[in-house]
Structures are given as C-alpha cells and as structure tokens.
Design brief:
The structure is a single chain. The protein has 471 residues and is mostly helical. It is built from 22 helices and three strands. It has a domain of 246 residues. The chain is globular, with a radius of gyration of 23 Å.
C-alpha cells in the first residue's frame, strides 16, 4: 500500500473513531481504553509523519484549541492539537482528544477564524460521539482490539513491521463508516455556536466551506481525505449560509474584527517548514504583491526574512523583519525571531543579549527560553543551556527536539550515559520506538545514569510494553 493511500485510510478511520469514545453508554469504550488507543496512535503518527511542535507553533495552535474548549465546556480528556507536515488537505480528531491539522489544509486558510472554525468542527464531532452507536460490541472482538485493528489496516501492513502497532491486527474488520449529513450538520451547529460564544464571526465557516467546494469541483480523480470523511461541502455550505442569514448577531459590533498577526506569522512559519525553498520564496513574493489583506502582506515580509536568513543574507533578512517590527512594535515574539536570524548568521552575542531580555521580560516564554538555550550551547555555556532545555522539556514533554539538545549537552559535559537516555526520548517522540527502547534499556540499567532518570526510563519501557500488549 503506498503512502498516500495509507494516509487516506489512516485519516478516514480515526476521524470516525474519534467521535465514538465518550463514556455515555455502556457499549462505549472506557476512558482508559481510549487513552491507550490515543497514545498508540500518537506514536504511530510521529513515526509516519513529522509533527511540527516547535514551542511557538505548539503554543499558538493549542491556545486556539483551548479557546474552543472553554466554550464547549468540561471534557473527559486533556486535548492536544498538532500540526502534521503533509501536503494533504486534511484535519482529523483522534482518540483521547488528539486533533491533527495538516499543513496542506493550513495553506488554504485565509484568516484565524477559518482555522478556528475547522478546529471547532472537529471538536464538535468528538463531543457528539457520532457513529458510536453503530459499533458492534456484541462480537468476539473487543472495542479496543477493533480500534487497533482499524488503525493497523489504515497505516498499511508494511508500516507495521517496525511500528508500535506490530501484532495488533485483529480480524481484518473493514467498516465502511463515514460522517453522515446529519453528523456534519450537528458538528457545524456546534462550531457555529462556539464561534458565537467566542465573539468570532461564523461567516468564516462559509469561507472555509467555499474553499472545500472549489476543491471538490476542480480536483479530478482522488478527492482530499477531508472531503471523503466530511462529505457534502455543497450541502454544508447551504446549511451554514442559512445559519449566517438568520444570525441576529451579524448586526452591530458583536463580532469584532480578528487581529490576524499571530495567524499569518504561524502560517508563514508552517509553510517555511513544509514547502520547497524556492516555492516558499515565490509564495512570499506573491503574498507581498497581492494587496488584498494588509496584515498578510506585511507578514509576507516575515516569510521573506526566513527565506533570506536560510540563505545567510543577513542584511536582507533584517530589512524584511524590520518592516514587520515597525508595523507591530508591541509584538515581542518578533524580538525572538530577530535573535534567531542573528544566531543563524553567527551573531551569537547579539542574539543572546536579545534573548536574555526576552526571558527576563517573560520567563515562561518557552520559544524564547528554548532559543536562548540553543545560543548558550553554541557559546559553550553548557550548564546554562542545560537548565533552559530542562524547563522546556518539563513544560513540553512531547517536544522531541529538546531531548536531542539535552543529549548534546550531556555528551559535551562528558556524560555519554545520560546522553543515551535523552537520545532514547528523542527517538521515542519521533516515532522510532524500536531504537528508543534500545537506548532506554541501557539507561535503565546503567548505574552511571542518575537514579531519577533510570526510574523514568524503566517507566517508559513498562508503558510501551503495556501499549504493545493491549489488544
């Protein structure tokens, strides 16, 4: 099975399974079963597709998600929101409150409200438990085994040989499940309601659905997976347009214009990571010339700063960035961006000065803390860098790259044993579970590794063993 087909099946099954799991009926999966499935799924996603979980990307997408969850009310899980590096036009919600956005979908969005509307729609499916009642729990296969079997089928047999799902394929059940028109309408109603409660104009839903309709009409052959699991964009658009027409809040100032600075900065950061270098340059140039959205036009200079910095053109990079800083003097995150560009161009002392000022201003700014740690490491200030990375790892325990940096620091400090422990975590959170276990087994038994880290290594190994045996 090729990767594109595997991805399509993967997203289809788990977008559907995700809505089936809240423990309202006796036939539903338990909270513990769902958490187990979610953990297995996340490891496999990381093994198959890169997850963009840089501190600033993580903070932005999860903060938006929490806004929706505040409107939605109490939930059974701690939701987590991820950006997946893939050109697919897709988003899906998975077990235990995991919500994934693909870079191919983010590229099509025009503003933050559109991103928020899709995010709310996915949460709406989870909250509504669509199709849960259709799962047959009366057979010999448990709900957990059925879910894992579907996950295995979705990823494709070749992908299982090294993965965490190895051996979990049960009876080859292939359920033809998809969201019904009623399911889509219910998720859209919830999204509409939550957008209202957040004072975000639900017209953004109409704009996003217009994009989906256009893709449906003009992409021949294979439709994007999102349009297969979320059918009938034409009917959905009509339905949402009728809700907008009846929305009495459209009058007056109930819906305030959204400041899209953070969204466009996020979008350009994501596209820099997902597009070919020259294609991204062309994208930024076109965005500067478009002249339709002034914020996007300005943030295109941020994108060009990233392009020029990659090519080590410091003067041009700084010229573009200063245009953005002049327009947004109160956006402290641009100070960090400036420091990153300086560091990339070997101006480490200047970068450190800026980052120390940022961290003094806000010690909880993990983007600033992480970048300061990187600069301190390059300057040979290993103990300081070690403390920065520990703080980031504590707050963002799934951020793989910070463990790689901790491993480098430990090796530079002369502790190869501790370095192997951190490399185990790095491989774990990049989906290389087989390699991770090799490192962690050594760390768990090595008396040169601090007891606390040995215990943590063993706990992770026990957890992986439990995940692999759950059927």
């Amino acid at each position: 099975m090729n990767l594109g087909k595997s991805l399509q099946h993967f997203c289809c099954w788990f977008a559907i399974l995700a809505v089936c799991l809240l423990p309202i009926q006796a036939s539903a999966l338990s909270i513990g079963e769902e958490r187990l499935i979610g953990e297995r799924l996340l490891y496999s996603v990381r093994g198959e597709f890169p997850v963009l979980d840089d501190p600033d990307i993580h903070h932005y997408i999860n903060e938006l998600g929490q806004q929706v969850l505040t409107a939605a009310g109490p939930q059974f899980f701690d939701y987590h929101f991820y950006v997946v590096l893939s050109p697919q036009f897709n988003a899906f919600a998975a077990p235990a409150g995991l919500v994934f956005f693909y870079t191919g979908l983010i590229e099509t969005m025009k503003n933050e409200d559109q991103l928020l509307s899709v995010l709310a729609h996915e949460i709406g499916h989870v909250v509504s438990r669509h199709i849960a009642q259709r799962l047959d729990k009366g057979g010999k296969i448990s709900a957990t085994t059925m879910a894992l079997a579907l996950a295995s089928l979705a990823l494709g047999i070749p992908a299982l040989s090294q993965g965490i799902f190895a051996g979990s394929l049960a009876a080859g059940q292939a359920l033809q499940l998809h969201y019904s028109r009623n399911d889509e309408e219910q998720a859209d109603r919830l999204s509409f309601q939550w957008m209202q409660e957040m004072h975000r104009n639900p017209e953004a839903m109409e704009g996003m659905l217009s994009t989906m309709r256009r893709i449906t009409r003009y992409r021949s052959g294979k439709l994007p997976q999102y349009l297969l699991t979320h059918p009938n964009p034409e009917a959905r658009l009509d339905y949402v347009q009728s809700m907008v027409a009846l929305d009495d809040k459209q009058q007056g100032s109930y819906y305030q214009p959204t400041d899209n600075f953070a969204f466009f900065r996020f979008q350009f950061r994501v596209l820099q990571r997902s597009m070919d270098h020259e294609d991204f340059r062309v994208y930024c140039v076109n965005a500067m010339d478009a002249g339709q959205d002034k914020t996007r036009q300005l943030l295109a200079h941020f994108g060009m700063a990233l392009v020029e910095s990659e090519e080590l053109n410091l003067e041009q990079a700084m010229a573009h960035l200063h245009k953005v800083k002049a327009a947004y003097p109160g956006e402290g995150i641009l100070d960090i961006d400036q420091a990153v560009i300086l560091a990339d161009n070997q101006r480490l002392a200047e970068a450190r000065e800026i980052l120390e000022r940022v961290v003094r201003r806000d010690p909880e700014d993990l983007y600033g803390v992480y970048q300061l740690g990187l600069v301190e490491y390059r300057l040979g200030e290993l103990s300081a860098a070690e403390q920065r990375f520990k703080k980031v790892a504590k707050e963002l325990p799934e951020y793989a790259q910070v463990y790689y940096e901790q491993g480098r620091v430990a090796a530079a400090l002369g502790s190869q044993e501790v370095s192997r422990y951190y490399l185990g975590l790095f491989n774990l959170y990049t989906g290389k579970t087989k390699v991770a276990k090799q490192y962690l087994r050594k760390a768990a038994k090595d008396q040169k590794v601090p007891e606390e880290l040995r215990d943590q290594a063993q706990q992770i190994l026990d957890k992986l063993k439990k995940l692999e045996k759950a059927t």
